[in-house]
Each structure stands twice: as C-alpha cells, then as structure tokens.
Write a structure and sequence with these properties.
Length: about 725
C-alpha cells in the first residue's frame, strides 16, 4: 500500500471521528442559539395554531364542516408546545443551579441542545405540512368546535364568540382571509410587481386593504409599506405627502408638485436597491400617472424598483391603465358570512319576532358589508311592524335602487336636520375626506352651527354632528382615527336622491361639462363644486340665482375669473376659489352682499381692497396666496371672525391705516399668522400692551403701536376687541 493511500484512508477515518465530536462540541458551546431557535419556532407554531383555531370556529358558526386534519393538527401543536416549553423551562432552571449560575454544565447543555434541535425541526415540519391546507367545506354542521380546542386552552387564550364587534373589519371571514393570503402570496412572488383587487362599490375593498396592510406589516414581508387614497379626483400633492410620511421624507416646504415627485422618486429608487418596498394605492378610478406622483416607473407607466397593491371598481383600470400583473375580484360576503356580520352589528341574536325578517334583509344587501351594516341598524330597538315597513320601502330588484332606498331609510331616520345639512355639505366638497377645518368655516357661513357663538364651539358642534352621521353608517371612520371618509355610494345617493330639494353638482375634470349643462339645472342648483379640475378658462358668467355654495379647486396656476362671473349669484354664502387670479377693481364679488365665507387660498391677489365691500364677511382665508399687503379696506370687515394669513410668504404688512393709526376687528376670534418671513414688525393691542416672540416671526415684538413706520421697518397694527385666539406657532 502506498503512503498516499494510507494517508487518504486515515484522513477519512479522522473525519468520521471528528464530525460527531464537532457536533457534540457545538451542542455544548451553542446551547443559547439552540434555545433561541426553539423559542422562535414556538412563537410561529402558537400563531399558526391560533389562526387555524379561529378560522375553524368561524367556519363552524357558518354551518360549515371542519376537515379531519384540523383537530389532529391542533392536538399535535398543543403537545409540541407543551414539550418545547417544558424543555426550555428545565434548561433555564438547570443553568441557574449549576455553581449558582457562574459555570455552565456541559452535560446539561449537550442534552438540551440535542433535544432542542429535534424539537425545532419537528415544529418546522408540522407548520410546513399544514400551513396551506383547506380548513372547512360545505356540508352538515360538524357539532361543537370547542372539541377542536385542546384541553387547557379554554378561557382567556381562546377568542370569545363575536358579540361586541362593531364593523366588518373586526370579524374574521374565511373568504376575506383567503383573499388576503392570496394577495400576500402574489406580492412575494417575483413574477408580479403590481397586484390589484377590483369589485363593485361597497363590497369592502378598502376594508380588505386595511386588514391586508396590517397582516403584511405583522409578517414583515416588506421593509417599507406606504399607503395613499387616490379617489375619483386625485390630489397629487396629498398622495405624495401620505407616501412620504411613511418613508419619513419631509418635503412640506416644497410647494411644486414636480419637485416633490423628484425627491420622492430618488428616495424610492435608493430604498429599492437594498430593501423591499410596497406602495398601496386605494380607490383608483382611472390611470394614475406614477411619474407625476414620484413612483419610479418606465415609459409605459409600469412600476420599477418597488411593488404596488391597488384597488379599483373597474378591472380595466387595473389591467389596461396600471398594467396589473395579477388582479383579484372581490365579491360580496357569502350568505353565512353576511348573517354573521349582521348579527355582530345588532349585538348578537336579533329579537325572536324579528328573525323572519333577517333573510329578507340579507337578500337586499347582496353581500355588501356596507349595506349589511346600514340595514342591521334598522333591527336595533324597533318593533316588527316598524322593521317590516322599513324593509318594504327599500326593496327593489335593481341594485342601484336598493342602495339608494336603503340609504334613504338611514338618512330619513336622522332626526337632526343639521346633520343632514352637514352630509350634503360634505358631499358638496367633492372629496372623500373633507377637511374638518374647512367644514367649520363653511358651516359658520351657512349658519349650520346656529347655537355656536365662537369658532371653538362650532368645532365642537361639528364633532357632534359627525358622530351622528357615523352612527348611521353614512360616514365611515378614517383609518388614522383623526377624521372620517364618505363612501362613494353615499355620495351618489346624496347627489341623486337626498339633494332633490337642494340640488348640487359635482363637476369632473372636463371643460365641456359647463357648456353641456342645461340652463334650468344651473338655475335651480344650490351648490357647485369643481374638485381639483384642470380648466383652461371659465365662462364669462354662470346663471345660478339659487346658488349658495361655490367651490373651485383648480390644478392650473392662477385661473382668471371674469368680473361678471358671479353677477347672478347674489345668494352666494360660501365661496372657495383655490388657485385663481384676482385683478384690481371692478371686483367679481361686487354683488355678493350675502357672502359669509370667502376662501382664496393659493391665489394671486393684486389688490385686496376689493374685499372691503363684503360687509357681512365673517370668514376670510388667504392662506398660501401671493399678496404683498393688506390695505385699510380690510378694516371695514367689522364682522370678521377668522382671518387666515398662514404661509403668505410675500406679505409685508399693512401700510395703510386710518387716521387713528388703528385697524379694528371687533368680532375677531381667530387670527392665523404662520410662516410670514417678510413681516418685520407686528403690533397688536387688546386692552393693554402685550409682548411676546414667535419662532416663525423672528425678532417680532407684539405690542401696541400707532401704525407708523419705526426705524424704517414696516408695521402691522391691529386693535382687537373681545375674545381672540391667535395662532403664530
């Protein structure tokens, strides 16, 4: 035998002897790592067992049969968890008792690590084997699901029956759970970059997205998850802000959408190189130009470097316009799920005498969670005859008529007329999430808060009315809990049905719409809104003698308004013109003697003296506008309660005052003065001189002065009589 052969054989023998020694040495030295791995798998198994247990309970409640593997899995999981916890407990105890914890026990660590590795592998295999199996099937009820719960798990660790849930998102439905799992599988599939969900309005797409986002975050499938609501008339700046907020990107100071888009795109491209990024866009009505938002994309609007999760009513928007790789259709709830949601909303089982009406009610709802929640309220604290009569009023074979009649019943049951007026006002704003601050301003002008004597009381009154509308399911809770949303079905209902006595128009981004509208329709209209439109030119005049509310939010910069545009609108009470140009006299507002609320945000105002004739004006907002000075005519607005000059970056002060050198606002409640870099001196008097400083008005002194120039600096003098809140922070 050669020397080389002998060495080779010896080496093989040595390896056979060393490998077990090496593994044993690892068991002793790495016992903490084996313990950590076991604890991790224990957590995974607990989650999987809880998920399957809850799904089985829900299926049994929906009269579905449970597959035989489910109780076997739960029993195996419980046994494995007990053994793993016992092993971890013994190891921890032994570690502390050996030399009072100062020295490791090699034998103890070896035995533990060897057993822990086997336990870890067994748990992994148990989870892998059962993670994607079907839990239930249609058929005879299997009996009590409690039999599926292993002994020792009763009590607080077991989710109780659903008797107190208050919304569709708080109840687990197997169809929705399956949809979320399908969405998650598609998102982690490298073949797909854009995943979508489509279905009719009210089917629960937005709610599904909230639950899916929560699950995605819990599973940590992506490093960054950002979500934005697109809506029918997209506000690009708001969408950018919502995405940037999740990324921690602060570009609030950037006014131009194109600059914000560039910054956002650069950030997303940088993150996409090393991290997984998901952007969720809810409620698309048409193609969204990703480049204009700042989402990296190719020439065909195909996303690059990150993944998108979208929802829309129209499959064509997802497939054709947004190049969706995998689009799921979301249908209404199954009969058993709809019944469970219905019973959850009424607080459990309905009254015995009302049980025969439940099936009739559910047939009307067509599986739409939105309608189920609305109709379920009819069964609370009512009699058989009242409930039967209400159902007769809303029954119709056409879904559209069903929706309108269903909502009509909820609408008519609201006893507070102010709440109905607020709902119409919310819809007239033309967006799904109206600003609470502007609702206060509009409402003050419309006398919606009759009992409110101050702006603060008006805000409290608004909150109370919103609560009333939420309780009737006509307004929805916003995800962040700071506001509310209006469902598209409610908007359609209010425009077509609830506003027949108070006609309103929501005009989309289309120049032809104004000329195509009938004169009779315009003459009877009480509210018109252009929500973020792109109009090249406004007509010379609109003949709307009954109009009380007019809102224009333009995408253009400084749209021209003719002097005669509002001549026929002498009953106008609320006017919001966002992004217009106002030249010198004659003023388009010269005949608006009844105007109470005027908002000219983001506008170019050559001379605000034209506003001095609006004697009854109570709310004036010039936020973000191009304005250099406030002339003495503003002092004629003696009824003014709120003046908003926030972010008027070119404002230099008041250079014209009356003979006394004072500028009086006797009823002023709120004065907003945030970010005015060119105001060099600002003087206020109430009943005695005041002094203060502001971080936003560097070097500013607040004290009484006679309105003359001081040391060559512009002055700003205001005398305030009565209660006032000043915001300069």
């Amino acid at each position: 035998m050669s020397t080389d052969s002998a060495i080779s054989i010896a080496w093989d023998v040595l390896k056979c002897l060393v490998a077990p020694l090496k593994r044993g040495f690892s068991y002793v030295m790495s016992s903490k790592s084996y313990a950590d791995n076991l604890r991790k798998e224990v957590g995974n198994l607990e989650y999987e067992a809880e998920r399957i247990r809850h799904a089985a309970e829900g299926a049994e409640n929906n009269l579905r049969s449970i597959h035989g593997w489910v109780p076997e899995f739960l029993a195996s999981a419980e046994k494995a968890l007990i053994e793993a916890r016992d092993l971890l407990g013994k190891f921890e105890k032994a570690s502390k008792t050996c030399c009072h914890g100062t020295l490791p026990d090699p034998n103890c660590r070896y035995q533990f690590s060897r057993k822990a590795k086997h336990e870890t592998d067994d748990i992994k295999n148990l989870i892998l084997k059962n993670s994607n199996r079907e839990i239930s099937f249609s058929g005879p009820a299997p009996g009590n699901v409690a039999a599926l719960i292993p002994a020792g798990r009763e009590g607080k660790d077991v989710v109780q029956s659903t008797t107190t849930a208050a919304s569709a998102s708080s109840v687990d439905f197997e169809s929705r759970d399956l949809m979320i799992r399908n969405i998650m599988d598609a998102l982690v599939d490298n073949r797909y970059s854009v995943v979508g969900v489509h279905g009719m309005g009210g089917v629960g797409k937005s709610t599904l997205l909230v639950d899916a986002e929560k699950r995605i975050r819990e599973k940590k499938l992506f490093d960054w998850v950002a979500k934005a609501d697109v809506s029918q008339n997209p506000d690009i700046k708001r969408i950018q802000g919502e995405i940037a907020h999740e990324l921690g990107l602060d570009f609030k100071k950037e006014e131009f959408v194109s600059v914000r888009a560039k910054l956002l795109c650069e950030r997303l491209e940088a993150e996409g190189k090393t991290k997984k990024v998901l952007i969720i866009l809810d409620n698309l009505w048409e193609q969204l130009d990703l480049k204009s938002v700042g989402i990296p994309c190719g020439h065909n609007n195909k996303v690059m470097g990150c993944k998108l999760l979208l929802t829309s009513r129209d499959q064509r928007v997802l497939r054709r316009e947004m190049h969706c790789d995998n689009a799921f259709v979301l249908y209404g709830l199954e009969n058993e799920e709809a019944k469970r949601l219905f019973e959850t909303e009424v607080g459990g089982k309905v009254q015995v005498e009302l049980e025969p009406l439940v099936e009739e009610a559910l047939s009307i709802c067509a599986g739409l969670p939105f309608l189920i929640l609305a109709i379920a309220k009819l069964f609370i604290d009512t009699s058989y005859s009242e409930c039967k009569d209400a159902l007769k009023q809303i029954w119709n074979e056409e879904t559209g008529e069903v929706i309108n009649k269903t909502l009509r019943v909820s609408y008519d049951r609201i006893k507070r007329e102010e709440a109905k007026s607020l709902l119409r006002l919310c819809v007239a704003c033309g967006v799904s999430k109206p600003s609470l601050e502007y609702l206060v301003r509009y409402g003050m002008g419309l006398r919606l808060f009759r009992e409110a004597s101050s702006m603060e009381e008006a805000r409290e009154r608004l909150g109370s009315l919103i609560h009333t509308l939420k309780a009737s399911s006509l307004l929805l809770e916003d995800e962040d809990g700071n506001g509310f949303k209006i469902h598209d079905l409610v908007c359609g209902f209010v425009i077509s049905i609830a506003s027949r006595d108070h006609p309103l128009l929501i005009l989309k981004d289309n120049n032809k719409l104004l000329t195509e509208l009938s004169k009779d329709k315009l003459k009877s209209c009480e509210a018109i809104c252009f929500p973020y439109v792109k109009l090249e030119k406004l007509p010379e005049e609109l003949d709307c003698p009954e109009l009380q509310i007019f809102m224009l939010f333009t995408k253009n910069n400084f749209l021209e308004v003719s002097d005669s545009y509002f001549n026929s609108m002498r009953n106008l009470i609320v006017l919001n013109l966002n992004g217009i140009r106002l030249n010198r006299s004659p003023s388009p507002f010269q005949f608006l003697e009844n105007l109470y609320t005027l908002c000219l945000d983001r506008s170019s105002l050559e001379d605000v003296a034209v506003l001095g004739k609006l004697k009854g004006l109570q709310i004036l907002s010039l936020m973000n506008s191009e304005i250099q000075r406030l002339s003495k005519e503003i002092g004629q607005l003696v009824e003014l309660r709120l003046l908003d000059l926030n972010h008027c970056s070119n404002l230099q002060g008041i250079v014209e005052v009356d003979e006394s050198g004072k500028f009086e606002m006797r009823n002023m409640h709120v004065l907003k003065l945030h970010s005015l870099p060119h105001i060099k001196n600002f003087f206020i008097a109430k009943s005695a001189p005041l002094s203060s400083t502001s971080n936003n008005l560097v070097g500013t002194q607040i004290a009484f002065f006679n309105g003359q120039q001081c040391l060559g600096l512009l002055t700003f003098a205001i005398v305030l009589i009565g209660h006032m809140a000043m915001d300069i922070s």
